[in-house]
Write a structure and sequence with these properties.
By secondary structure, this protein is mostly beta strands. Helices cover 11% and strands 61% of the residues. It has one helix spanning 2-19; strands spanning 26-36, 43-45, 48-62, 66-83, 86-99, 104-116, 121-133, 145-152, 161-168.
């Protein structure tokens, strides 16, 4: 339900942006590389498979630099149906970033992963992001909605994925 509301919000925002006579302009604000503890033992929720993957390490760069604190993680809810060999996964992310200057940024994201069931690889992961911080220098993040495209790394890599987060420039 929340994911649907976010999708509708972004569709309306995009339509309004286009109706004002211009293409949206995106500015990259953060790149967050993450590693998670993988667990293949899924739980059941409303007859759907679910999983929780805690963060074990990470780093970020962009408007600030620092590390991902080992708290928070990603909760996935796997669809019970397949569409042409694809499975839809709802993803909910909670993480805390610690900047090199000692400030914290709380992050929440909701999104979707489309997984190819034949190759067990991800076709895409798109998420919408919200931030909270007490940092005076980064206070503008508190009113920013980010949009991310995620890149997945190969098995055995130091990191599992990288979230590249953008904002629409006003």
């Amino acid at each position: 339900m929340v994911v649907r509301k976010l999708i509708i919000f972004f569709l309306i925002s995009t339509i309004l942006q286009f109706s004002q006579g211009g293409e949206p302009v995106f500015e990259k604000i953060l790149s967050i590389k993450i590693q998670v503890e993988m667990d293949d033992n899924h739980g059941e929720f409303m007859d759907l498979k679910s999983g929780y993957y805690p963060y074990t390490k990470g780093e970020f760069s962009g408007v600030a630099e620092g590390v991902l604190l080992p708290q928070g993680g990603a909760r996935n809810l796997y669809s019970d149906s397949y569409l042409e060999g694809k499975r839809l996964i709802e993803d909910e992310i909670i993480m805390v970033l610690l900047t090199d200057s000692g400030e914290k940024i709380y992050c929440e994201a909701l999104g979707l992963i489309l997984r190819d069931t034949d190759t067990d690889s991800n076709d895409f992961m798109h998420t919408s992001w919200r931030f909270r911080t007490a940092s005076p220098n980064l206070a503008w993040l508190n009113t920013t909605v980010g949009i991310a495209k995620t890149r997945f790394f190969n098995e055995g890599s130091e990191y599992r994925a990288e979230h590249n987060i953008y904002r629409i420039v006003p």
